[in-house]
Amino acid sequence: MVFISPASKWEEALPLGNGRLGAMVFGSPDWEKIQLNEDSIWSGQFRDRNNPAAREALAEIRRLLAEGLAVEAEELCLETFSGLPPAQRVYQTAGELLIGFSPDGGFGHPWSGTRGGPLLSNIKNYRRELDIARALHTVSFEHNGTVFTRECFISAPAGVLVLRFTAADTQGKPVRGKISFRAGLDRGVFYDRRGNTKDAAFITRDGDIPFCAMIKTVQKGGEQSSRGGFITVLNADEALLLADIRTGFREADYFSACVSSLERVSTSGWDQLMHEHISEYRSWYDRVELEIADANAARYFNFSRYLLISCSRPGSLPANLQGIWNSHMDPPWGSDYTININTQMNYWPACMCNLAETEGSLFDLLERVYPNGKKTAQVMYGCRGFVAHHNTDIWGDAAPRDYWIPASYWVLGAAWLGIHIWEHFEYTQDKKFLEKYFYLLHEACVFFLDFLTPGKKTNEAGDQYLVVSPSSSPENSYLINGDVCSLCAGSEMDNQILRKLFDVTIRGAEMLGKNDIDTGLLRSFLNRIPQPTIHSNGTIREWNEELEEAEPGHRHFSHLFALWPGDAITVDETPELAEAARNSLRRRLSNSGGHTGWSRAWLVNFMARLGDGEAAMESLQAMFDHFTLPNLFNAHPPFQIDGNFGALSGMTQMFVQSRLRYDKKSVTGFYVILDLLPALPKSWSSGRLKGVRAKANLELDFSWQDSRLKSLTIRNNGKAGVKVLLRPECAGKNELLLPPGDNVIF
Asked: CATH number of the domain at 2-42+93-285, please?
C-alpha cells in the first residue's frame, strides 16, 4: 500500500499492531502523529448491572407476547430487563504520540501556535508505504538535498512499538547530524500524570483501568534531553524511538512494567529488533499465498489477513468492532464486542486462513463471560447455565446493554459464541481443546433447558415446539396491528442457533465420553426446536409466525444463519431451503439491502455458499466501491473491522469450502465434503492458493486455469485417517482416504 502524501485524516492513516498494541501512523514530514491503542484500555471496571425486576416480569411478558400484545410486552421489557445502568464499558484510545521535526531545532508545539525553527517545507519525492508482507510502515522524502526515512513496526517478540529515523544524501550515503525532533505523549484532558523517568517520558491514567504510556529514545551522535514530559533529540546521526503501554488489567505495577520493557528493548539494535519482528510475523503471514489476476481483490485478501494477525494474538484480547484501532474516548457502539454477528464475523476466516491460533482470545473472553452469565441467568431469569445478550465488554458483562428493543434483550449471544468452539474443533480436531471448553457448550444448553417455553404449534410427534420468549430477530422489526415491533416469541435465528448448539453438544458429550451429561434429555429438547419454514412468499420465514417485515431491505440476515455461518442449509442436501434462502437474499437486495460494509461481507459468504460466484463478486465489488476507506479499512460506515474479516471469509469460500458430515452409527466417524472452486467468478478464471485450511485438519495447495482445477495437494495434518468426498473429482477420483500425516498430490 503506497501513498504519495501524508494522511490528512484518521481514515487515511495506516495500521500497525501486535495483538496487544495498535497504532495508526499519519506520516507527516514535520509533525508526525501516531494514534495509539492498547487492547485493555477501557472506560472502567466491572459493574453488576443485572435488573432484579426481570425475573418477576418474565411470565407477564411471555403472556403479552402470546396474546399478540407486543407493544405492551416491549414497554414492560424496557423497564424490567434493561441493565442498571444500561451501558457497558467502552474501548478507548490510549492517546497520541506526537513528534515534531526540525533540522535546526526549535520545535514549538501544535497548541502553542508558534514554531521556533523552520518547518520542513519544499518536500520532494514523498512516499508513505505499508508493507503488509513485513508489517512495516515507511515514510521517506527529500528535503534540501537530504533524504529522510522513518520506519516503524510493532514487534510481538519485543512487545513494543519501534521507530527508526535516518538521513542520507540522494545517493544513499548516510548524512550525520540531521535528526532533530521533540517527542511527547498526549491524551487531551483524559490523563492524570505526565513526566519523565530514567530518560523516558510518560503519561498515566490512575483511575478506571489505570495505564501508563511511555517512550524512550536511543540515538547515535547528537544530544538528548528528557524533561517536561518530552524527549528532545538534537543533531543525531540516527535515532530509535521506542513506545510501550501497560495497564492495570494485566499488571498491578504497570508503570514499572513500562520502564522495564523499554530498558530491556533499548539494549537491542534496530537490526536485531527488525529481524525478530519480521521472522515472527512472517511465520503467520506466509502460511497462505494467493495469486489471482484481480490485483484489488488479492490486495484486500492479504490486507485483511494482515489485520487479523495484527489485532488478535494468543494472550491478547479478541478483536472488537474496530480491531484494536480506535481514536475515540466514546467510540461508535462502544467499539465493543457485539455478539449478534459482528464479533463472530471477525473470526470466520481464522481457521480457514490458517490462523486458528488468533481465535484463542475469543474463547478466553467467553470464559470471562461465563461467571457473569451464570449470575445473569439466575438473577434475571431464574435459570441455571449461563447466558449473554447482544453485547459484551472487556469484563465479559452478560447483562442487556442499551434500551434498544430490536437487539438488547436477545439471549443467544453466548450460545452463538459457543458454537465457535465446535467450529474450531472441526477444523483442528484437537480433542484437548474441546475438552477444555466443552463446559461452555453444555452450560449454554443448560440455560435453555430452563428458559425455553412451549410455543403454539406441535411437531410430528404431537409435542409442543419450544421457543425463546422474549426474543427478537436481530436487529429487525415486524408489523403487527399497525405497530412496528421487534420483541417476539421465538425467531428463526433462535431456532437455527439452538438446533446447532444442542446437536454439537450432544455429539461432543458422546465423543468425549461425558457420561454425566444426559444426552437423551438434550436430544428430546432438540427434537422440539422448530425446523426452518418457508414463507408463503417463497423466502425463509424470519419469525415463528408469518409476519410482515417493517424493513424488507434490512441489513441483518439473521434468519439465514443455517446457510452461513451454519451449514444446515446447502444446495445439494436441502435444495428447497437453499432456494428459499436465495429468494430471501433477492428480496433483501431488491429493497436496498446490503447497505453497510459488514452486511455486504455477509452477502459474499451467502452467495459463495449458494455456489453463485458472480453474485458473490458483485457484493465484493460493492464493498470495494462503497464501503472501503482509503486505507482499506471497511466502513459500516463508520469504520468497523468485521467487514474486512467477513469479506476475507467470503473470498476464501469462493475458492474452497468444507463441511463435516457424521456417521449416525458411530460416535467419532465422519467424512469431509471438500468443494474446490465452488463459487469462482469469471474474472478469477486462473490462479493459485497455497496453505488454506479445510475441516478435519486438512491443508490445501491448489491452482486452476480457465476456471478448471489444474493441480491439488491435500495434506492430512491430523492423527487419524480422513475420508474425503472431493468436488469436482480429480484424476477421475471423487473419494479419498487420507492416512494421518500423509498427503495426496494430483
From this structure: 2.70.98.50
Query: Contact 552/591 with Cβ under 8 angstroms?
Result: yes
Joined grid coordinates for residue 687: 490462479
How far the first Cα of the chain sits from its last, in Å, is 36
Cα separations in angstroms, 201 against 181, 215, 219, 366, 681: 14, 5, 16, 36, 54
Q: Report pLDDT digits (tens) over 370-394.
A: 999 999 999 999 999 999 999 999 9
Q: In whole angstroms, give the CA distance from residue 308 to residue 323.
A: 8
Report how far apart, in Å, the C-alpha atoms of 10 and of each of 33, 241, 303 are: 10, 22, 17
d(CA 502, CA 497) in angstroms, rounded, equals 9
Distance of CA 511 to the CA centre of its chain: 30
Residues 581-614, buried b or exposed e (16+ Cβ, 10 A)?
A: bbbbbebbbeeebbbbbbbbbbbbbbbbbbbbbe
Indicate the residue type of 36.
L
Measured in degrees and rounded to the nearest 5, phi and psi for residue 104 equal -110, 15
Distance of CA 398 to the CA centre of its chain: 19
- The stretch 252-269 carries a mean pLDDT of 96
pLDDT in tens, 113-125: 555 445 677 899 9
Inter-residue contact 519 to 507 (CB < 8 Å): no
Residue 613 φ/ψ, nearest 5 degrees? -65, -35
Distance (Å, whole) CA 316 – CA 432: 21
Length of the chain: 746
Provide the CA 326 distance to its chain's centre, in angstroms: 14
Q: Give the contacts of 75 (CB within 8 A, at least 6 positions apart).
A: none
Q: Is the dihedral of CA 348, 349, 355, 361 positive or negative?
A: negative
Strands 223-227 and 548-549, sheet pairing: unpaired
The dihedral built from the CA positions of residue 449, 450, 452 and 453, taken in this order, carries a sign that is positive
CATH number of 54-84+359-552: 1.50.10.10
Q: Is 446 in a helix, a strand, or coil?
A: helix
- Cell numbers given for 586: 433477492
- Residue 328 parent element (H or E): none
Q: Rounded CA gap, 605 and 654, in Å?
A: 8
CA distance 665 to 695: 21
**Which DSSP category does 478 fall into?**
E
Give the C-alpha distances (Å, rounded to integers) separating 633 from 61, 507, 545, 623, 645: 42, 39, 39, 11, 10
Distance from C-alpha of 519 to C-alpha of 508, rounded to nearest angstrom: 10
**Separation between Cα atoms, residue 543 and residue 238, nearest integer Å:** 65
Q: pTM value?
A: 0.96
Q: How far apart are CA 552 and CA 284, in angstroms?
A: 42
Cα distances (angstroms) measured from residue 597 to each of 304, 342, 483, 626, 631: 14, 11, 29, 8, 15
Answer yes or no: same fold for 2-42+93-285 and 670-745.
Answer: no
pLDDT tens across 646-665, in order? 999 999 999 999 999 998 77
Where in the chain are the domains?
2-42+93-285, 54-84+359-552, 670-745
Per-residue pLDDT, 221: 96
Q: What is the pLDDT of residues 45-90, one digit of tens each?
A: 999 999 999 999 999 999 999 999 999 999 999 999 999 999 999 9
Q: In 296-353, at which residue ranges do the beta strands (DSSP E only) sit?
A: 337-338
Residues 6+ apart with CB under 8 A from 554: 475, 476, 588, 593
Do strands 483-485 and 656-662 pair parallel, antiparallel, or not at all (unpaired)?
unpaired
Q: Which CATH superfamily is domain 670-745 in?
A: Golgi alpha-mannosidase II (2.60.40.1180)
Extract the C-alpha cell encoding 25: 501512523
- Residue pLDDT, tens place only, 309-357: 999 999 999 999 999 999 999 999 999 999 999 999 999 999 999 999 9
Q: Residues 166, 251: contact at Cβ < 8 Å?
A: no
233: nearest Cα among 216, 211, 245: 216
